[in-house]
Amino acid sequence: MNAIEVKNVSKQFKNFRLNNISFTVECGTIAGFIGQNGAGKTTTMKLLLNLLKKIDGEILLFGKDHVMHEVESKARIGVVFDELHVPDSFTPRELDVLYGNVYPTWDRLYFHDLLEKLNVPKYDKIKTMSKGAKMKLALSLALAHRPKLLLLDEPTSGLDPIARDDVLNMLQSFMEHEDHAILFSSHITTDLEKIADTITFIHEGEILFSENKDDLLYGYGIWKGSHEEAKIIPNHAIISKRDYMFGIEYLVLRELVNPIIELQKPTLEEMMLFFVKGRKG
Protein backbone atom coordinates (compact mmCIF):
# COMPACT_ATOMS: atom_id res chain seq x y z
CA MET A 1 0.00 0.00 0.00
CA ASN A 2 1.12 3.55 -0.67
CA ALA A 3 1.19 6.03 2.21
CA ILE A 4 1.37 8.93 -0.29
CA GLU A 5 0.29 9.16 -3.93
CA VAL A 6 0.78 12.46 -5.72
CA LYS A 7 -0.65 12.39 -9.25
CA ASN A 8 -0.14 15.24 -11.73
CA VAL A 9 -0.46 17.92 -9.04
CA SER A 10 0.00 21.62 -9.83
CA LYS A 11 -0.04 24.82 -7.79
CA GLN A 12 0.35 28.35 -9.17
CA PHE A 13 1.85 31.30 -7.30
CA LYS A 14 2.67 34.73 -8.68
CA ASN A 15 6.31 33.91 -9.46
CA PHE A 16 6.41 30.13 -9.08
CA ARG A 17 4.57 27.10 -10.38
CA LEU A 18 4.56 23.57 -9.02
CA ASN A 19 4.11 21.85 -12.34
CA ASN A 20 2.31 18.54 -12.79
CA ILE A 21 4.33 16.62 -10.19
CA SER A 22 3.88 12.90 -9.48
CA PHE A 23 5.53 10.53 -7.00
CA THR A 24 4.62 7.85 -4.47
CA VAL A 25 5.82 6.84 -1.02
CA GLU A 26 5.18 3.20 -0.16
CA CYS A 27 4.40 2.03 3.35
CA GLY A 28 7.52 0.57 4.92
CA THR A 29 9.85 3.05 3.18
CA ILE A 30 11.68 6.30 3.83
CA ALA A 31 11.48 8.67 0.87
CA GLY A 32 14.16 11.34 0.60
CA PHE A 33 12.97 14.61 -0.92
CA ILE A 34 15.76 16.81 -2.28
CA GLY A 35 16.09 20.08 -4.16
CA GLN A 36 17.33 23.64 -3.83
CA ASN A 37 15.68 26.26 -1.65
CA GLY A 38 12.53 27.39 -3.42
CA ALA A 39 12.30 24.25 -5.56
CA GLY A 40 8.88 23.28 -4.17
CA LYS A 41 9.58 20.86 -1.31
CA THR A 42 7.76 22.76 1.45
CA THR A 43 4.95 23.70 -0.95
CA THR A 44 4.46 20.02 -1.72
CA MET A 45 4.27 19.12 1.96
CA LYS A 46 1.74 21.89 2.61
CA LEU A 47 -0.35 20.57 -0.28
CA LEU A 48 -0.29 17.09 1.27
CA LEU A 49 -1.65 18.60 4.50
CA ASN A 50 -4.21 20.74 2.61
CA LEU A 51 -2.63 23.88 4.05
CA LEU A 52 -2.37 24.98 0.43
CA LYS A 53 -4.96 24.15 -2.23
CA LYS A 54 -3.84 22.43 -5.42
CA ILE A 55 -5.26 23.62 -8.74
CA ASP A 56 -4.93 20.28 -10.56
CA GLY A 57 -4.22 16.65 -9.84
CA GLU A 58 -4.92 14.16 -7.08
CA ILE A 59 -3.38 13.50 -3.65
CA LEU A 60 -4.11 10.26 -1.79
CA LEU A 61 -2.97 9.52 1.76
CA PHE A 62 -3.24 5.82 2.65
CA GLY A 63 -5.39 5.38 -0.44
CA LYS A 64 -7.91 8.11 0.44
CA ASP A 65 -8.41 11.62 -0.90
CA HIS A 66 -6.51 14.03 1.33
CA VAL A 67 -9.35 16.58 1.39
CA MET A 68 -12.41 14.33 1.69
CA HIS A 69 -10.73 12.38 4.51
CA GLU A 70 -8.67 15.25 5.93
CA VAL A 71 -9.40 14.75 9.65
CA GLU A 72 -8.83 11.02 9.49
CA SER A 73 -5.61 11.44 7.50
CA LYS A 74 -4.11 14.14 9.72
CA ALA A 75 -4.67 12.00 12.81
CA ARG A 76 -2.22 9.52 11.29
CA ILE A 77 0.46 12.08 10.35
CA GLY A 78 3.31 13.58 12.35
CA VAL A 79 4.79 16.79 10.96
CA VAL A 80 8.10 18.61 11.48
CA PHE A 81 8.65 21.87 9.62
CA ASP A 82 11.85 23.93 9.76
CA GLU A 83 10.25 26.10 12.46
CA LEU A 84 8.39 24.98 15.59
CA HIS A 85 4.89 26.48 15.31
CA VAL A 86 3.81 26.51 18.96
CA PRO A 87 3.66 29.33 21.57
CA ASP A 88 7.25 30.12 22.46
CA SER A 89 6.31 30.91 26.07
CA PHE A 90 5.35 27.24 26.61
CA THR A 91 7.56 24.54 28.07
CA PRO A 92 7.62 20.93 26.81
CA ARG A 93 5.60 19.87 29.87
CA GLU A 94 2.91 22.42 29.01
CA LEU A 95 2.91 21.21 25.41
CA ASP A 96 2.40 17.69 26.74
CA VAL A 97 -0.92 18.81 28.25
CA LEU A 98 -1.92 20.76 25.13
CA TYR A 99 -1.19 17.92 22.69
CA GLY A 100 -2.84 15.41 25.02
CA ASN A 101 -6.08 17.37 24.64
CA VAL A 102 -5.76 17.42 20.83
CA TYR A 103 -4.71 13.85 20.00
CA PRO A 104 -6.72 10.90 21.38
CA THR A 105 -3.68 8.70 20.74
CA TRP A 106 -1.22 10.99 22.60
CA ASP A 107 1.30 8.85 24.53
CA ARG A 108 2.58 10.88 27.48
CA LEU A 109 5.11 8.29 28.65
CA TYR A 110 6.53 7.95 25.15
CA PHE A 111 6.78 11.75 24.80
CA HIS A 112 8.79 12.08 28.01
CA ASP A 113 10.96 9.14 26.98
CA LEU A 114 11.74 10.91 23.69
CA LEU A 115 12.63 14.11 25.54
CA GLU A 116 15.02 12.15 27.74
CA LYS A 117 16.68 10.37 24.81
CA LEU A 118 17.18 13.62 22.91
CA ASN A 119 18.22 15.65 25.98
CA VAL A 120 15.43 18.20 25.55
CA PRO A 121 14.91 20.25 28.76
CA LYS A 122 11.35 19.71 29.99
CA TYR A 123 10.98 22.91 32.00
CA ASP A 124 12.67 25.46 29.71
CA LYS A 125 10.53 27.87 27.72
CA ILE A 126 10.78 27.28 24.00
CA LYS A 127 11.98 30.83 23.36
CA THR A 128 15.12 30.12 25.42
CA MET A 129 16.03 26.94 23.51
CA SER A 130 18.65 26.57 20.82
CA LYS A 131 17.54 25.77 17.27
CA GLY A 132 18.76 22.21 17.73
CA ALA A 133 16.74 21.71 20.92
CA LYS A 134 13.64 23.12 19.22
CA MET A 135 14.06 20.72 16.33
CA LYS A 136 14.39 17.74 18.67
CA LEU A 137 11.29 18.89 20.55
CA ALA A 138 9.41 19.18 17.25
CA LEU A 139 10.34 15.60 16.37
CA SER A 140 9.24 14.38 19.80
CA LEU A 141 5.88 16.13 19.37
CA ALA A 142 5.48 14.59 15.91
CA LEU A 143 6.16 11.07 17.15
CA ALA A 144 4.32 11.02 20.46
CA HIS A 145 0.80 10.63 19.08
CA ARG A 146 1.95 7.43 17.36
CA PRO A 147 1.49 8.45 13.70
CA LYS A 148 1.77 6.13 10.71
CA LEU A 149 3.34 8.76 8.42
CA LEU A 150 5.97 11.39 9.14
CA LEU A 151 6.37 14.51 6.99
CA LEU A 152 9.77 15.95 7.86
CA ASP A 153 11.03 19.26 6.46
CA GLU A 154 14.72 19.63 7.35
CA PRO A 155 14.46 17.72 10.68
CA THR A 156 18.25 17.50 11.18
CA SER A 157 18.90 21.16 10.39
CA GLY A 158 20.88 22.87 13.16
CA LEU A 159 21.86 19.62 14.85
CA ASP A 160 25.43 18.58 15.57
CA PRO A 161 26.60 15.23 14.10
CA ILE A 162 25.91 13.27 17.31
CA ALA A 163 22.38 14.65 17.69
CA ARG A 164 21.74 14.06 13.99
CA ASP A 165 22.77 10.44 14.40
CA ASP A 166 20.39 10.09 17.38
CA VAL A 167 17.53 11.49 15.28
CA LEU A 168 18.29 9.17 12.35
CA ASN A 169 18.33 6.19 14.72
CA MET A 170 14.93 7.25 16.06
CA LEU A 171 13.55 7.44 12.53
CA GLN A 172 14.87 3.97 11.76
CA SER A 173 13.20 2.69 14.95
CA PHE A 174 9.94 4.29 13.77
CA MET A 175 10.29 2.32 10.54
CA GLU A 176 10.40 -1.03 12.35
CA HIS A 177 6.64 -1.08 11.75
CA GLU A 178 5.89 -2.13 8.17
CA ASP A 179 2.84 0.14 7.89
CA HIS A 180 4.88 3.27 8.68
CA ALA A 181 6.39 5.67 6.13
CA ILE A 182 8.45 8.87 6.07
CA LEU A 183 8.78 11.70 3.57
CA PHE A 184 12.08 13.32 4.56
CA SER A 185 13.11 16.63 2.99
CA SER A 186 16.73 17.59 3.64
CA HIS A 187 19.68 19.52 2.29
CA ILE A 188 21.98 17.17 4.23
CA THR A 189 22.09 14.52 1.53
CA THR A 190 24.46 12.31 3.53
CA ASP A 191 21.60 11.74 6.01
CA LEU A 192 19.42 10.50 3.16
CA GLU A 193 22.20 8.28 1.86
CA LYS A 194 22.20 6.58 5.27
CA ILE A 195 18.50 5.88 5.70
CA ALA A 196 16.39 6.65 2.61
CA ASP A 197 14.97 3.92 0.37
CA THR A 198 13.94 6.22 -2.48
CA ILE A 199 14.95 9.69 -3.64
CA THR A 200 12.68 12.24 -5.28
CA PHE A 201 14.45 15.27 -6.77
CA ILE A 202 12.43 18.42 -7.40
CA HIS A 203 13.87 21.38 -9.30
CA GLU A 204 12.06 24.63 -10.12
CA GLY A 205 8.69 23.05 -9.42
CA GLU A 206 9.21 19.90 -11.50
CA ILE A 207 10.22 16.35 -10.54
CA LEU A 208 13.47 15.47 -12.30
CA PHE A 209 13.57 11.92 -10.96
CA SER A 210 11.96 9.71 -8.33
CA GLU A 211 13.85 6.44 -8.01
CA ASN A 212 15.18 3.78 -5.69
CA LYS A 213 18.25 5.20 -3.91
CA ASP A 214 20.48 2.21 -4.64
CA ASP A 215 19.51 2.26 -8.31
CA LEU A 216 20.66 5.89 -8.41
CA LEU A 217 23.92 5.45 -6.53
CA TYR A 218 24.92 2.19 -8.20
CA GLY A 219 23.24 2.63 -11.58
CA TYR A 220 25.10 5.86 -12.37
CA GLY A 221 28.81 6.61 -12.40
CA ILE A 222 31.11 9.60 -12.74
CA TRP A 223 33.94 9.60 -15.26
CA LYS A 224 36.69 12.24 -15.28
CA GLY A 225 39.42 12.85 -17.83
CA SER A 226 40.71 15.05 -20.60
CA HIS A 227 38.63 15.99 -23.62
CA GLU A 228 40.78 13.64 -25.73
CA GLU A 229 40.30 10.71 -23.33
CA ALA A 230 36.55 11.39 -23.23
CA LYS A 231 36.16 9.74 -26.64
CA ILE A 232 36.02 6.34 -24.91
CA ILE A 233 32.62 7.22 -23.38
CA PRO A 234 29.73 6.54 -25.80
CA ASN A 235 27.40 9.51 -26.25
CA HIS A 236 24.27 7.49 -25.49
CA ALA A 237 25.65 6.68 -22.02
CA ILE A 238 26.10 10.33 -21.02
CA ILE A 239 23.37 11.84 -18.84
CA SER A 240 25.12 15.13 -18.13
CA LYS A 241 28.56 16.72 -18.47
CA ARG A 242 30.52 19.39 -16.61
CA ASP A 243 33.84 21.07 -17.22
CA TYR A 244 36.38 21.03 -14.43
CA MET A 245 39.87 22.46 -14.03
CA PHE A 246 41.75 19.66 -15.80
CA GLY A 247 39.20 18.45 -18.33
CA ILE A 248 35.65 17.19 -18.34
CA GLU A 249 33.47 14.96 -16.18
CA TYR A 250 30.44 12.92 -17.16
CA LEU A 251 27.52 11.47 -15.26
CA VAL A 252 26.85 8.22 -17.11
CA LEU A 253 24.67 5.15 -16.99
CA ARG A 254 27.00 2.35 -15.85
CA GLU A 255 25.31 -0.35 -17.89
CA LEU A 256 26.08 1.52 -21.12
CA VAL A 257 29.80 1.94 -20.41
CA ASN A 258 32.49 -0.70 -20.96
CA PRO A 259 33.02 -2.31 -17.51
CA ILE A 260 36.80 -1.99 -17.82
CA ILE A 261 36.45 1.82 -17.70
CA GLU A 262 36.88 3.10 -14.15
CA LEU A 263 33.92 5.07 -12.79
CA GLN A 264 33.38 6.73 -9.45
CA LYS A 265 30.24 6.11 -7.43
CA PRO A 266 28.32 9.42 -7.25
CA THR A 267 26.91 10.98 -4.09
CA LEU A 268 23.40 12.44 -4.07
CA GLU A 269 24.94 15.91 -3.89
CA GLU A 270 27.04 15.25 -6.99
CA MET A 271 23.99 13.98 -8.84
CA MET A 272 22.07 17.14 -7.94
CA LEU A 273 24.92 19.27 -9.30
CA PHE A 274 25.02 17.32 -12.56
CA PHE A 275 21.27 17.59 -13.08
CA VAL A 276 21.11 21.29 -12.20
CA LYS A 277 24.46 22.68 -13.40
CA GLY A 278 25.48 20.12 -15.99
CA ARG A 279 24.64 20.21 -19.67
CA LYS A 280 23.33 17.59 -22.04
CA GLY A 281 25.18 18.46 -25.22
Radius of gyration: 21 Å
The CA-CA distance between the termini, in Å, is 40 Å
Total domain count: 2
Structural class: alpha/beta
* CATH superfamily placement of the largest domain: P-loop containing nucleotide triphosphate hydrolases
Helix count, DSSP H or I runs of 4 or more residues: 9
In N-to-C order, the SSE pattern is EEEHEEHEHHHEHEHEEHEEEH
How much strand content do the residues show?
25-35%
Helix content: 25-40%
Which architecture of the largest domain would the CATH scheme give at its second level?
A: 3-Layer(aba) Sandwich
How would you describe this structure to a colleague?
The protein has two domains: 2-204, P-loop containing nucleotide triphosphate hydrolases (Rossmann fold), CATH 3.40.50; 216-277, no CATH class. Helices cover 30% and strands 29% of the residues. It has nine helices and 13 strands. It has helices spanning 41-48, 70-74, 92-102, 108-117, 131-143, 161-174, 189-195, 213-219, 268-277, and strands at residues 2-12, 17-26, 30-34, 56-61, 64-65, 77-80, 149-153, 181-185, 198-203, 206-212, 220-225, 238-244, 247-253. The model has no long low-confidence stretch (mean pLDDT 93).
